[in-house]
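Human: I wish I could look at a protein chain and see how it folds. This is the protein in question:
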Amino acid sequence: KKLFEVKRKDQMNALKNLIELNDVNQQYKIIDIMLKGLFKVLEDSRAVLIAADVPPDGPFPQDEKLKDAYSHVVENTAFFGDVVLRFPKIVHHYFDRNSNWNNLIRWGIGFCNLTGVFEQGPHSQVLGLVRPSLARRIPSP
């Protein structure tokens, strides 16, 4: 949990910088790159965890590869939540075109809900807010 808190602090700083960037075109470009990377990591991590049959509600894995995959799922799912809540129009611009991303993030949310990592503390509301924002379709201008 301590490593998660450190990672979340880094993510929030990156998000703050993105918010302060007053160039919408740059925000689109950065978020596009960020989402592609985030979902690649989420997809790879899911494959590792499923192959090793790691239950989200079980003990934290001891194997380094499994620890990394577990952490990546929790961190990237939370970060996606932060980004979609702050930049819904931009995220939907890319997200709505990729059904695999929808499946991945829903799996990630389900996994995270079972871990207990989000039950208390400053990040407890993120997952609950993400699902409704995914259901919303943002009209294009």
Observations:
- Residues 2-135 form one domain.
- Residues 24-51 form the longest helix (28 residues).
